[in-house]
Amino acid sequence: MTGSMQGKVALVTGASSGIGRATALIFGREGAKVVVSDVNGEAGEETVSIIKEAGGAAIFVRADVSRAGEVEELINKAVAAYGRLDYTHNNAGIEGPSVPTHEYPEEEWDRVVSINLKGVWLCMKYEIRHMLKQGGGAIVNTSSAAGLTGVKGAAAYVAAKHGVVGLTKTAALEYAQSGLRVNAVCPGNTRTPLVERILAQHPKREAHLIEMAPVRRLGTPEEIAEAVVWLCSDAASFVTGVAMPVDGGWLAR
Ligand code: NAD
Hints:
Layout: E1 9-13, H1 18-29, E2 33-38, H2 41-53, E3 58-62, H3 68-82, E4 87-90, H4 106-134, E5 137-142, H5 155-175, E6 180-187, H6 193-201, H7 205-212, H8 221-232, E7 243-246
Parallel strand pairs: 1-2, 1-4, 2-3, 4-5, 5-6, 6-7
The structure holds nicotinamide-adenine-dinucleotide.
């Protein structure tokens, strides 16, 4: 696939870093106009510059996905800038603390769930309203391998990522006859700034993270992004409601 998304418009949240930036760049490579969104403006503008330097079109729109008003404005700005919205990758997320369930702080629970779960729902809510008017579209939500299995010490993260899978399946059913496909990607451990932050706090965990995947390495952001862009593309026209692991075999064990 190269240039297969000419004339299309893609929105990526959490696109200042890691998996989101990689997806934004691949949408750009495929010829889509890209709306780069994040709370981090400086790094978001950097994503835009990389796309433009490669010959693509992109704009940055700042939005905190946990705030309904900001998400609604994001979708309005995206449509105002480029006239339509074909593909969205609802990807913004945070890791939260690493503590057992009985010690998990309530305020951290609320923060993780409001960004990782409510944020995905809010994005879908406003994206779908526009896509229904337009007559179709494709949405990919970032869940996690931790959306399909438990992980010790990550109660809110795991609960939120399982929730994303439920939201995805529900919307897939609701809009299957409206030209809208809704899928989730479930990355395994991927070398991004999020994982680098965890490893900076717990350096001994790298070997464990590598162990978890039968391929015995971390994924790259690009390996996740290629799956997201494929799920959005017409090549995946019969695929809706799936939670697709891209995890080096972790969940096959
Ligand atoms: P990252 O930290 O590199 O990127 C996340 C981006 O989201 C950052 O740019 C950050 O500024 C942005 N963000 C955070 N809170 C936000 C908010 N409220 N509104 C808008 N943007 C916000 O992390 P990543 O590893 O690229 O993670 C991207 C997604 O992939 C997350 O949902 C994460 O849970 C998921 N994921 C990551 C891994 C992994 O191993 N890296 C594995 C499974 C799932």
